[in-house]
Amino acid sequence: MNMTPNNIIGITEYGAAQKVPGSNILLRIGNKYYLIDIGSHYNNRLDKEPLPFDARTIDCLTESHGHGDHMGLSLKLLKSGFKGRTFATYCTADLTLLQNNQAVKSVFVYNKMVKGKKIPGTNQWIPFKKIEYNDADVKGFMNTFESYDKSHLGFPYNVPIKLSEDAEIMFLEAGHIPGSAQILLTINKDGRKIKILNAVDLGRTDYNITDHPIADIPIVRSPDTKLPKDIDYVVIEATYGDRTHKPLADSLGTLEEAIKDAYKQKGKLIIPAFSIMRTQMLEYFFFKFNELGRLPKDFMVYLSSPSAVDVNKMILEHPEDMDTNARKDFKNKLKNPFNFEKLIIHNKWTETDEIARSASALSSAIIASSGMCDYGRIVSVLENTISDPKNIILLTGYVSPGTRGYLLQNKEKKIPFPDGLVDLKADVRKMGGMSGHADCKEMLAHLKHIKDPAKREQFKGIFIKHGEKEACYALKRELIKAGYDVASIHVMERGKEYAL
Ligand SMILES: [Zn+2]
Q1: What is d(CA 161, CA 166) in angstroms, rounded to the nearest whole number?
Q2: Radius of gyration of the chain (CA)
Q3: Which CATH number fits domain 248-430: 1.20.1050.10, 2.40.340.10, 3.40.50.10890, 1.10.287.3510?
């Protein structure tokens, strides 16, 4: 086949191929280059290496949502010479600003906090982090954003957006976090018209089918399933390609039991949580428990996470992203899930430390970030609470090997902190089922809305990414079982260009 650079349409994944972090797709349409996501690899060496493509040649970047593994290298892209335009939904544009501001600030805070400390049990000093980006870079990147109208950076859902003579995109609800979008790309090139759907990260669809009184609270709307039938290619995630989630009702049961037990034992309930969405869902759960009279009268909930508070504010500014039930709950400015009488927000970490250290007989919950327990305010909260057997540590999601959260999950006898090892005597529990990603079953159902093999409908290509190798291949097997043509399914390989 004669493929000159002018007629080729190719797709390459440069990060999240057979692994989860680092989403970074390069689309080549003739001699134009488009990026979908520019995600961080989460401290992997790839974050330090030069970008695998020439940033100066990129015509535009489209962001699927505001999580770091999808936009975390945006400042690096800018510093590598990106002169193109950036497209995202309104809320994703806001989250990008927030995340990049935090990234710049956190390096300063980190350097201030670890000054003069040694890695426990060793003679090595904890290294200072290099200051790579500043406020001007954050501003510089925000200047690349395009907008639908002058009122706000970004775009609404469901409107066609022209990228060039050859390409158009549309954002569709992905139901993963506020602002998250499936990206529908239409290419019209040299008489060929193709449609590609990027459905990474895709949210949950089954929140609403549990029978727990408060399970019907996704905050964000479910993924848009009113998709056009003429989609040729799909890019999907395999984060949970080999799993089916536990119902959300199970998680709520675990949370309610932990509240009751902590209260009975006069202990504290410590919940490490990510600041985007995990914390907000927890706030929502506590709000609903309180509304239904299922929270003990003198039980308080302390939120200690400045970044989560910023995300709270941002979510309130984007009711367009909310589920109908959530919109009702958040409408009341005086009594909404982020502002109710039992929720106390700590602006200073010393206030939280005081609560964590206090020997008060009153039980309470403390929510702090980060979920992996390696940085943020949760570190000192844990340091002050894990040696008391009355306390309960409730992990709310995946903790990766090598993190303090992982050591807690494994119930190691001694947990390292910057000031030394601390005995773990508190009860460590895990709350599953809160994932914001579609599982294998949900992903298959989503694809079936577009092309149903039972009706002899097939995609020209299905690209699987954003999942560990085993999960990617497990999802491939499920797709074949469901009747999708084996030749059309590709488990993406990093750096390999697939011709469309
Ligand atoms: Zn995500």
Answers
A1: 12
A2: 23
A3: 3.40.50.10890
Q: Is the peptide bond before 387 cis (omega within 30 degrees of 0)?
A: no
- What top-level class would CATH report for the domain 9-244+436-499? alpha beta
What's the token pair of residue 301? Answer: 């909930």
pLDDT band at 2 (very low <50, low <70, confident <90, very high): very low
Q: How many helices (H) and strands (E) are present in the chain, helices listed first? A: 13, 21
Cα of 231 vs centre of ligand 1, distance in Å, is: 23
Greatest alpha-carbon span in the chain: 77
What tokens appear for 471 in the block? 């999960």
If you measure from the C-alpha of residue 71 to the centroid of ligand 1, how many angstroms do you get, rounded to a whole number? 10
CA 91 to ligand 1 center in whole angstroms: 14
Instruction: Report pTM.
Output: 0.89
Distance 274 CA to ligand 1 centre (A): 12
57-87 pLDDT, tens digit per residue, is 999 999 999 999 999 999 999 999 999 999 9
201 alpha carbon to ligand 1 midpoint, in Å? 5
How far does the centroid of ligand 1 lie from the alpha carbon of residue 204, in Å? Answer: 12
Other residues' Cβ atoms within 10 Å of the Cβ of residue 139: 12
Preceding peptide of 201 cis, ω within 30°: yes
Residue ranges per structural domain of the chain: 9-244+436-499, 248-430
CA of 10 to the centre of ligand 1 (A): 24
Chain centroid to CA 356? 28
Angle value at C-alpha 61, between 371 and 24, nearest 5 degrees: 50
Rounded to the nearest angstrom, the distance between the alpha carbon of 267 and the centre of ligand 1 is: 33
CA of 70 relative to ligand 1 center, distance in Å: 7
> Using the 8-state DSSP alphabet, how is residue 47 labeled?
G
